[in-house]
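Thanks for the sequence, V.! I ran Nicotinate-nucleotide pyrophosphorylase [carboxylating] right away. Repeating your input here for the record:
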Amino acid sequence: MIDAAIAEDQTFNDPTTAALVPPQIRGVGILRAKAAGVLAGVEVGMAVFRRVEPELELDALMADGATLAPGDDIARVAGPAGGILRAERIALNFMQRMSGIASLTNRYVRAIEGSRSRIVDTRKTAPGHRYLDKYSDNHIEANRFREMGLRQVIELALERASHTIRVEVEVETLEDAQEALDAGAHIIMLDNMPVEMMREAMGFIGDQAVVEASGGINFNTVRDVASTGVHLISIGELTHSPPALDISLDLEFE
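Predicted structure:
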């Protein structure tokens, strides 16, 4: 991913840096938070600088998961100034996106404190970024296989899947939820169900399968969804439209 980002940015074809920053000029750059949030992507950012300019001295001052306040120094980069400038935008792109996801996730987690539900993400990721954005489960959508019979599809998936794979079934009705449960699905996703219908589904599913609520859930509704007792709440916003966390690089020439 880093090499692809470097190629896309045409990092080594930067005429401005080549013209204005001779190779012998050195500098010190500080990666600094400009907004409050949760830090993620430090090692990825450092790897970008290392890949673009191996001579750089890198010092991460904070670790992933740290709580950021405006003005916090995140990392120090020292060495050839041209290398720092060429790597800056790519490193910041990774760190701002990853920290934005971490910060938004933290807000949702705090919103359901005291419930048994856990916040999870979805497959709605940026192209090429899924490895950094999330990990996926095996997933069956009931509506796509209705002609074959939902129970038959689930049983076939369970038969053919590795023992390490969990079979998840997406349902929109209580009838499909019951059928998925009877067929032995490991995870039942309640998709776009009203809260009261979720509550009814939990009444007969209980802890016989992991239940995930999904579809249009936001800060205004997440607490009500958690009150139904579902095990997981998936939030598409976490990966399809997270606000980037503002992080800058301040560079001083030596």
